[in-house]
Amino acid sequence: MAYKITDACVACGACVEACPVEAITEVDGKYVINPDLCIECGACEGECPVGAPQAE
User: Fold this and answer.
1) Contacts for 30 with CB less than 8 Å, ≥ 6 apart
2) Which of 8, 39, 41, 44 could form a Cys-Cys staple with 52, CB 3.0–4.6 A?
3) Mean predicted lDDT score pLDDT of the chain
4) Domains and CATH numbers, the chain
5) From its phi and psi, is residue 45 left (phi > 0), alpha (psi between -120 and 50) or beta?
6) How many of the other CB atoms lie within 10 Å of CB of 5?
7) 3-state DSSP of the chain
């Protein structure tokens, strides 16, 4: 299952840098993961300081 960014997100952008397929974008001050592009690698989860990205 693709990852999703929870409300715990502090919009630091660490996940964007970590994503190897550029599936994460900023929308209205929040980051979102495009489930069609996500390869479920978990790189974003490992870089997030607050654990916002979670597997659905």
Assistant:
1) 5, 9, 11
2) 8
3) 96
4) 3-55 (3.30.70.20)
5) alpha
6) 19
7) CCEEECCCCCCCCHHHHHCCCCCEEEECCEEEECCCCCCCCCHHHHHCCCCCEEEC
